[in-house]
Amino acid sequence: MRRTTVSAPGPGGYPKRASTEKLQEIFLKHASIHKNGEAFMSSNDFVRGFLGLLPHEDYNEQSVRLLAGIIDTSKDGLISFAEFQAFEGLLCVPDALYRTAFQLFDISGKGMISFKEFCEVLTSTELNERLSFGMDNQFLKLYFGKEKTRAINYSEFSQFLHDFHEECGTQAFQKFDKDGSGFITALDFQDIMVNIKNHLLTKEVQDNLVAAAGGQGGHRVSFPYFMAFNSLLSNMELIKRIYLNATNGNRTQEITKDEFLYSAQMMSQITPLEVDILFHLCHLIHQRGRIIYSDIQAIAPEQYHKRLNNRLAEIRAVSSPEERGFLIQVLESTYRFTLGSVAGAVGATAVYPIDLVKTRMQNQRTGSLLGK
Questions:
Q1: Angle between helices 354-364 and 321-337 (to 10 degrees)
Q2: Do 31 and 46 contact (CB within 8 A), yes or no?
Q3: pTM for the complete prediction?
Q4: Whole-angstrom distance, CA of residue 167 vs CA of residue 133
Q5: What is the pLDDT of residue 16?
């Protein structure tokens, strides 16, 4: 298997753009439409031809349209070379994931996202079937207005994704808490984490979800415990800093819960309940009462921005199948980050067949963006 071409980072350490000539060569190889002397890719050319996704004849046309919409910024059903080149440039910016996600939801291409556009993408996902997210709740009214007529810009959208992710967790808990007791079962907790919050889970954490739910006794999970569990996994970079502060940078020194709490007291974002969960998880996985840095690493979810930007810095052109596989990685990362942060586990959504993508990535690449 050939390795991808390595490129030195451009100014400021950001990924270097591919040459116009190289990109045009790639573009023309897949463009099947010609109008007024100009070549264009169709949605099928880009998604099924260039990316090699959805190869079967019974593919979901809505999936193709939504995926191609990320690059088809004019929304005319045709992808020009200028749009193809702009997409390559989009992958080189520091906030590539947020930018790509914004273009996914910006179906009309107006640079603003309406409530209708948000609903069209969301209802194409498996999340909608699993959770039946209420579209008339107060949370959405705060962002889109009482009458849902307000559109949100890019900056607001980035915050919306973060907050909507939290709202999904809350609604999922309420769905399973049928009697309104403020508790769900350990198996319901596992179901939510695996199907809605999967992007926060490492294999070690996923394998110990039911046991972790037993941390409160009786294998029931309260809403505060549920929120603290998710908050902990969302703040693992801060957890690492607290540990390193407690050990003066020593990554192999064992520390107790009290020592960790003492180091954490200056950072009010971390609660004692989150620290309890941290030590309980580490004990379940490593069978010891103290923790070291590698214990924290084992439960820390993937930092998409960091790995995406590091991987982008190695890419120069996307001409070979292996290099095209990287674009698939970027799109998967976008979906895991957006419909992942929005929905948790994307799974086999109507929008994007993640299982197929993972198989293709494992076959096509030597490096890994998201892990196997």
A1: 140
A2: no
A3: 0.66
A4: 9
A5: 58
